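WARN no homologs supplied; continuing
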Amino acid sequence: MDGGGELKDVAFEPDTTAGAIVTAETKSQAPNRAGRFLLGLGGFVLTVALTFLGLLAITFFIGRVVPIDPVLAVVGDRAPRAVYEAARIEMGLDQPLLVQFFHYIGSVLSGDFGMSVSTGKPVFEDLKRVFPATLEMATIGIIIGVVVGVPMGVYAASRQGSLMDQAIRVVGLLGYAVPAFWLGLVGLALFYARLKWVGGPGRLDIFYDGLVDPVSGLILIDSLIAGETDIFFNALWHLALPSSVLGFFSLAYIARMTRSFMLDQLAQEYVTTARVKGVPERLVIWRHAFRPIRVPLITVIGLSYAGLLEGSVMIETIFSWPGIGNYLTTALFNADMNAVLGATLVVGAVFIGINKLSDVLYRVLDPRAR
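OK structure emitted
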């Protein structure tokens, strides 16, 4: 406005300072995020490497302190002294313990677990053959445990103090108290020998053995790939009982932990607020109370799965299951230390892998843990 009171057009230019600042901040944050990601990834890899190195050390030194002479297991008790010493030198047992340990690390990292005395084959080849059987049985067992155990725990918590809650708690206690070998033997006697509802010991009936090429090692998948539905249902028939026994112990633990987690959430104020607002009980339980427990529940399921993989020795022995547990038992009886150490190392590595996978899923589902 000039002195005569007239308005003059004033050109206003947009202020780009704020946008420039935001853009600069975004660009400066990008390298920081990448650096934090790389730092976290490096820490994760370092943790896994150190854990695996500790596992290698434990298996190696335990193998050296047990009262079993691996040389005698190869040459026999009646071998001459010269043959014994030659075998000992060839196996590298004449070298210092620390040197043997570094040789052991190099061999394991290259996939060389030594030769098995029991089978006469490389231990690595044996483990590739037997581990899928254990993986298949434990996977079906954990599926049973999750599908049955999680709803049981949720229902027990939502009906705290009811008759069903007491019954589910009894099932959880039985999962801790009942010995696995007893439950397996009773299952065989009742459901196989008496009722004929399930298949007996072994992975397949004998006339189906060897008819399917082991593409993945998992007989259910390989039979479907080959289009052999008869073999698929026969394998499922044999898997039903041992997987159900493992699944029972898994669901008992998962149901008990789910109930504990849910009771803690149902006592929170936000659940009471949702109920006061008239939210349907089903939504209160599954949307408001169950959602926060998914993160700790993943850890429980992961540890339970790893426990099934490493604790199936007794079940595999009872059901003559050709898995890593049966292989480990046979190796122990035959003083086959290469096979024992190799099987122990594989089970430990799987346990580490599942534990770390649970940590990753934990961070994905819970942004606060990132």
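The chain is about 70% helix and 0% strand.
OK
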